[in-house]
Specification:
The structure is a homodimer. Chain A is an alpha/beta fold. The first copy, chain A, folds into 2 domains: 235 residues, 3-Layer(aba) Sandwich (Aldehyde Dehydrogenase, Chain A, domain 1); 149 residues, Aldehyde Dehydrogenase, Chain A, domain 2, CATH 3.40.309. Chain A has 14 helices and 16 strands. In chain A, the strands form 4 sheets. In chain A, strands 10-9-11-8-7-12-13 form a 7-stranded parallel β-sheet. A 4-stranded parallel β-sheet of chain A has the order 5-4-3-6, sandwiched between helices. In chain A, helix 2 packs antiparallel against helix 5, helix 3 packs antiparallel against helix 7 and helix 5 runs parallel beside helix 6. At the A-B interface, strand 2, helix 10, helix 14, strand 13 and strand 16 of A face strand 2, helix 10, helix 14, strand 13 and strand 16 of B. Strand 13 of chain A pairs parallel with strand 16 of chain B.
Amino acid sequence: MTDATITDIPAYMTDLGHRARAASRQLARASTAAKNHALLAIAAQLEQERAALTAANQQDLAAGAAKGLDAALLDRLELTASRIDAMIEGVRQVATLPDPVGAITDLNYRPSGIQVGRMRVPLGVVGIIYESRPNVTADAAALCLKSGNATVLRGGSEAFASNQAIARCIQAGLVAAGLPEDGVQVVATTDRAAVGAMVAMPEAIDVIIPRGGKSLIERISREARVPVIKHLDGICHVYIDAHADLDKAYAIAINAKTQRYGTCNTMETLLVDAPVAAAILPRLAAAYRDKGVELRGCPQTCALIAEAVPATDADWDSEYLAPILSIRVVAGLEAAMEHIARHGSAHTDAIVTEDYARARRFLREVDSSSVMVNASTRFADGFEYGLGAEIGISTDKFHARGPVGLEGLTSVKFVVLGDGEVRG
Amino acid sequence: MTDATITDIPAYMTDLGHRARAASRQLARASTAAKNHALLAIAAQLEQERAALTAANQQDLAAGAAKGLDAALLDRLELTASRIDAMIEGVRQVATLPDPVGAITDLNYRPSGIQVGRMRVPLGVVGIIYESRPNVTADAAALCLKSGNATVLRGGSEAFASNQAIARCIQAGLVAAGLPEDGVQVVATTDRAAVGAMVAMPEAIDVIIPRGGKSLIERISREARVPVIKHLDGICHVYIDAHADLDKAYAIAINAKTQRYGTCNTMETLLVDAPVAAAILPRLAAAYRDKGVELRGCPQTCALIAEAVPATDADWDSEYLAPILSIRVVAGLEAAMEHIARHGSAHTDAIVTEDYARARRFLREVDSSSVMVNASTRFADGFEYGLGAEIGISTDKFHARGPVGLEGLTSVKFVVLGDGEVRG
């Protein structure tokens, strides 16, 4: 499937990196109009090339089936007509988002007479390493382009033909808008050495965003010689406080677990304050039973819920991504926060309470990328937060934290306006 | 000089890291009042222990002299009475700065009914690795404390006794304010293995800030397994445009080069637009001559300035940190920006012009941490920018860029306030 003309991977990647760097300079100064023009041209091109996209995807699907890929992987790989629609619509929506680049904030006069502010600027070249979903190619390219960055994309080998077909549409769109074709490059080889090269080219790539399973992300974090915006575990908690409104608690605990099972912001552990355990747990257990959720509990939980099985120590550290929930009865807010600090993954944690002081303490003291009061953890999402779009969710603290939108793909520089001032 | 009881460096550093992590949780939720109380208590303690500080410093100076350290190094090492004054005053000033921690911004309602904002939070544990100046111990500890971080400090071996004496004052101040003594720890060994351990403890240390020469910073960047806020070269440019006010240009070019020679924001290369070269260069050359600045120029410069020697290619890439200036006559704004992109270090670059469009292009297109119009590069400084203080200047783009104050020592998390909302 690889482009057979690429035999010298280091030389190929070096050249690709040089071209990305050169293109990034042009994209950094591209006007908002030119970037939006390119996005709409990319969308039009994807629309026009539907047949070619589907044919390329069929080729990937046939190769995947022949290789014995499992059904779930083949499903993720498939570009159905509605997925192509969604991909095109996503690119169009990015065109409607405000352009973050060049915005100047806090432009204040200083006693010396200079005026100092901060201008938002692109990061430069963003490398995205992802797995089987080919729609990431268009989504990620659109966000990087709008934020003025050049992009190097390296998708999964099983989606090679689909990604190349999408890349051709993107590059045609860039050219139509007078922007450099090299602004978005899709690595044209499935050789894994290309990934090793990508994460170790600080002169060419400024940040790597891996999107995929934990093993991919861990490997990239280990090998990377450039910053990585990464998402590791999502072990999210809901804590039902003694002062909770139990109807809200019920609605949130059901939604946080069962609205979707496989997402990173799904609740994996429910913590319940001892005074309300008997009032809420049997009611919740009935609803979870109806939805087929397996319950694993601490001894107090098991005493209140007949069908709960005893939780092991490993349960408190597990991201199930499945209809399984661990439940622990705790002795108040302190114990709940201690459990979250010890077992959580600093992703998303919520308290349900009507108590002002406890809500305020939870918000301040729980060190997670999203901290919520009386809301479902499922809201931790770039669209729900109003970021317009999301390139991923960061579980790091450095640079970007939580859902990462256009702003997370930028940095700021200081701008100084003077009238001939010198330093005394 | 090392504490002789420390024989097992990995075990010592692991323990120190554990204690830093535990202390960081307490400092993250410490009130503004408690942190300010600690800062004032540290200042009082430093005041009270002047004699002990001076004695410890004398011990370092004697050992340094015996080891044959050069005069410049011994000077940097010395804690004179006025330097102790400045150190104490610096700690007191940090107490007067606004507390960034817990501030919530952009708390907006979303269509779902949830209200989403961002709360500023400490990074966690900050590791500082620095060289001979012992005052860094108090400066860095104060900034990290105010921003709610625990700190692990590793100073130069030649300042060991001085740093330990300062550390005792800091820890006494923390205890006086009811904050954990382990909130600021100074590594009590000069074994270089401690540095290797510090930069590779992601479980204990969240970010490393090296302060020192280029070789220290390069070594740490290479070895680090945690993010590094680093400062590499400061190859700063002033570009005098054809549309410059030549009096402003003169003042800025003299100040940017000669106000101080050894600082990172000192101009190293002067670029002059060809149409004004004959009008400004001889006048500047006379002033530089009076100040003893050696001039190295391109052929056009040498034709205009008799005493200029020809610049070599290496000059354009040199950070002299000395009374040496390279000068190049360029053909307009594009050529100037091209020179800066190619030879600059993305630190601080200035244009002198009265032309609106050229000023605006330079601000947008020059990709440096500080970009200036009609002001001296020497203003690139946390105090001059109004950050209140500065832990360093970052030449990275990721997380923090340019002068880094309290805000650069923090991150943000999302906070979500709801009333029982669930995701549909």
